[in-house]
Description:
Blueprint (H helix, E strand, L loop, with lengths): L5 E13 L5 E13 L3 E5 L6 H8 L7 E6 L2 E2 L5 H11 E4 L11 H11 L4 H14 L15 H13 L5 E5 L7 H17 L3 E5 L11 E6 L2 E6 L5
Parallel strand pairs: 3-8, 3-9, 6-7, 7-8
Antiparallel strand pairs: 1-2, 1-4, 4-5, 9-10
Helix pairs in contact: 3-4, 3-5, 4-5, 5-6
The structure holds adenosine-5'-triphosphate.
Amino acid sequence: xxxxxxxxxxxxxxxxxxxxxxxxxxxxxxxxxxxxxxxxxxxxxxxxxxxxxxxxxxxxxxxxxxxxxxxxxxxxxxxxxxxxxxxxxxxxxxxxxxxxxxxxxxxxxxxxxxxxxxxxxxxxxxxxxxxxxxxxxxxxxxxxxxxxxxxxxxxxxxxxxxxxxxxxxxxxxxxxxxxxxxxxxxxxxxxxxxxxxxxxxxxxxxxxxxxxxxxxxxxxxxxxxxxxxxxxxxx
Length: 235
Ligand SMILES: Nc1ncnc2c1ncn2[C@@H]1O[C@H](COP(=O)(O)OP(=O)(O)OP(=O)(O)O)[C@@H](O)[C@H]1O
């Protein structure tokens, strides 16, 4: 691990998808963006503007058509599949809209399963998992399975799970889409707190402009083009 303070650098990233008719759809158009550890970057923009595509490229799940992606100092373009998978495991936490927890596992087991994938042994992993669940406010729910948790609690498990690998970059896609206002506000507050506590660079895609002021930087997308940092109170 390089431990740079800038966890993500996208330089002139363009992403084109085939449209199925010998043409392409340009989802990202010359996007340049960097994200610093300990800060939240809010990413807003209308449906279809390219926000999920940007997260997928940053997550190293989709290679860009052109441009470069650096995660914690490593040039992703120079890595093979194994190298990218390792980088993802070691540097990137992902929180999707739906928590996608495994129905048969307890909250603590959801987190320990991630550690097992990284080759860690159960004892220290269970200790770290319990600590993380405490931090996200679920100290008393460690033995509960997803169906015994509320939507907000499930999203908290999801966030704790994403932090389990000690990432430098946390990519969060519409984390409150399925939650009521009060739960949304507390999830956003939690994301702010863990960003500072774990010194992750958080990129937060949200439709909910009400929560954008909690971001340190707000960027907006339109038609694949990034509108560069705007004041957080810009409507
Ligand atoms: N797998 C794909 N194949 C072809 N086109 C795609 C694919 N995924 C996305 N697109 C297109 O790329 C553009 C950007 O889509 P993207 O999902 O990144 O936008 P978004 O801002 O995340 O939208 P939303 O807010 O609705 O999730 C859109 O025109 C979309 O139709």
